Amino acid sequence: MKSHFLEAKNLLFFDDLALYYLLQEVPLSVFAKAFTELDPKLMSTTIKILNPRQREILYLAIQKENHQNQEENRKALEGILLIAGNLIDKGMILKQGIYYYGKKK
User: Fold this and answer.
1) Which residues contact 76 (CB under 8 A, 6 or more apart)?
2) What is the mean pLDDT of residues 1-10?
3) Under a CB-based contact definition with an 8 Å cutoff, are residues 8 and 38 in contact?
4) Domain segments of the chain: what residues?
5) How far apart are CA 104 and CA 30, in angstroms?
6) Assign residue 97 a region: left if phi > 0, alpha if psi is -120 to 50, beta otherwise?
7) What single string gives the DSSP state of each residue in 69-93?
């Protein structure tokens, strides 16, 4: 199994379905911790994909998180990238050039 090395900027090239798959695997509390490390464009796209209840949970988690702890925020981001790489390895997310597409079931 090939391991995929991702950087935070790669997440900007995930389509909505790929982000949806990622959101199904990553707890919203982890996204909340990584909030300060993620590109604002990615966060707005992520929020768009969430259902209203998930948005509410994410907003509450973001408010609750202490974003001063850079180490925890960085670890949360690393976890998100690891999970994204696993989804690519499983074939749920396909890479084409610089873009990542969720594979329709």
Assistant:
1) 30, 31, 33, 34, 37
2) 76
3) yes
4) 8-102
5) 25
6) left
7) -HHHHHHHHHHHHHHHHHHHHTTSE
pLDDT digits (tens, 9 = 90+) for 55-87: 999 989 888 876 678 888 899 999 999 999 999
User: Taking a C-beta distance cutoff of 8 angstroms, is the pair 59, 71 a contact?
Assistant: no
Of 89, 69, 85, 62, the C-alpha closest to 6 is 85
Whats the size of the chain, residue-wise?
Answer: 105
Nearest to 30 by CA among 87, 93, 68, 75: 75
Evaluate whether the domain defined by 8-102 bears CATH number 1.10.220.30.
yes
Give yes or no for a contact between 13 and 98, defined as CB atoms under 8 angstroms apart.
yes
Write the burial class of residue 87 (CB in 10 Å: 0-12 exposed, 13-18 middle, 19+ buried): buried
